[in-house]
Amino acid sequence: MKKTLCWLAFCSVFCGFFVFGPAGAGDPSGAVSGFIRVEKARVKTGGAKSAKDVVVYLKPLAPVSFTPPSKHAVMDQRGLVFIPHVLAVQKGTTVDFLNSDNDRHNVYFLFDDTGETLDIGTWGPGQAVSHTFDKAGVVITLCQLHLEMAAYILVLETPHFTVSAIDGKTQQATYEIKGVPAGEYVLQTWHKKLKMKGGAVQIDVAENQTAGIDIIITPAKYAK
Question: How far is CA 109 from CA 21, 51, 106, 139, in A?
Fold first, then answer.
């Protein structure tokens, strides 16, 4: 038993890919999980605008369309801070922007891929404004009344994603994406400063199995 566990640990660290099973009793879907490790950098994990958040997501290789979720996501403005600092949503999701402060707030989008901007308004304490994101991409979210405020919204084509937080001491995190239909996917990550070492990885997900990939994020110059 000890030899088996040691061999699995060796594969997870040095091979970067492993498969467990079963994924869950009565659930035919698969899952993907693993470790995230920071290399050749140190991520600041404290403070409202830290770099602790890593988005891990799966893009199916086969053409498929996903129904947008009916449940709204939420981004709050509290203590002159956007909460959460990083929000991942599926394309078509409506996000409710709350104002939990005693000050008026504004929400202003900068679309990273096009440079286009959109001001959705300014509102007072206790109020909220909603916006539906119908295009995939990174949306930098700002408040024109408080220039120190900033957040990121990652709008994804896929519903298969998770956001993990790097631990400040170990500079590592774990992630798990459940409920993944069997098939071929490309696993990718997003971090506001670091890149996935080696780039996107193709992965096969099987029914009732958990496939594992360990991820390294590093400065862009070391990522290739």
Answer: 42, 20, 10, 6
